[in-house]
Amino acid sequence: MHIQSNLQLCFCVCLPSLLPEILVECLEGLRQIFFNQVPKLGNSMNKIRRNEQKAPPKFLRDRKVVPDADPPSIEDINRLYQFFDNSAKVMVLTGAGISTECGIPDYRSPNGAYSSGFRPITHQEFVRSSRARRRYWARSYAGWRQFIAAQPSPAHVALASLEKADRIDFMITQNVDRLHHRAGSNPLELHGTVYTVICLDCGFSFCRHLFQDQVKAHNPKWAEAIESLDYGSPGSDKSFGMKQRPDGDIEIDEKFWEQDFNIPTCQRCNGVLKPDVVLFGDNVPKERADKAMEAAKSCDAFLVLGSSVMTMSAYRLVRAAHEAGATIAIVNVGVTRADDLNPLKINARLGEILPRVLNIGSLSVPVPH
């Protein structure tokens, strides 16, 4: 038992301080294997394991949500550091890849929503069909509690730090989840946000939390039933198979929204309410698109983070920056539409590379003006 205790001490305390940071995750896996093979542990080790079991799963380890990728190499980290260090006016575009590390799925990765045959609602469907709107709002209401529980990732926090140090001149996000804001950033939301609801008739907009309250008031028994459900493993009796979708809605059977589900209308004009997002088939508002294009054409470096830039609204920005002479860099797991622009390309998870880039050199030191 004396030898066993010493081995435990080595695995838990000594080795992590000696190994490079990149191997710590591997060590954690070995430690858990070792503990599973030891028949009896001391009280302190049992306490550690109980705490680990209570802790929420790390989304970085959830292969169903986060695309698989090798840890970034020292060379990759240094190249991205030099990209920032050699640029005076960096523009950043973020996509779903930064939010998958927070537990919010994407559309286009190997395990994304498209891989299961999911088809998101289009703007035309939403406008024309009251049934489509009931389906959307019922699923969105049901998924809201889980959606807003997501927390900013280390990548979100690192970007906010780079902004504060004036290493990022302008940031745009394709995401609608407001995780950048919660980390301390204030990016241009290219595709809007689900945190705001807007009237299609008079343009009045208001907070999504108020809309949730209105839905509950219009459908008290339905809302009570939805809120009593547990978000367990997809397919389990507790979860009702409610699988989270990229825009915050979840899959629920149509019998739960086809009848007896009422959508609130605009309190000002009784018009149709819609999430303030650019749905598929719709266009980015002209003023917002113009602002993004102006920033792309005036930057000297354009960084794509966690986006395949398959949508034209995003790709045209990268292309415009490239044509204006900006240096292009892409950090994404998998291919992108902009790969043919010959950018600096790094295949890595953002939460594993951005904090390390921030912590080397002097990027966290504010740029003197």
SS field, number of helical segments: 13
Form type: elongated
Radius of gyration: 23 Å
- Helical/strand content category: alpha/beta
Largest sheet: 6 strands, parallel
Helix content: 40-55%
Q: Return the string of H and E elements.
A: HHHHEHHHEHEEEHHEHEHEEH
N/C terminus separation: 62 Å
> Low-confidence segments, ≥5 residues, pLDDT <50?
1-63, 112-116, 232-242
Strand content: 5-15%
Average of pLDDT:
79
Protein name: NAD-dependent protein deacylase
Organism: Melia azedarach
Question: What's the arrangement of secondary structure elements?
Answer:
Elements: H1 2-18, H2 24-37, H3 43-54, H4 74-85, E1 90-94, H5 123-128, H6 130-147, H7 154-164, E2 170-173, H8 179-183, E3 188-189, E4 192-199, E5 205-207, H9 208-218, H10 220-227, E6 273-277, H11 286-298, E7 301-305, H12 312-323, E8 327-331, E9 344-346, H13 350-358
Parallel strand pairs: 1-2, 1-7, 2-3, 7-8, 8-9
Antiparallel strand pairs: 4-5, 4-6
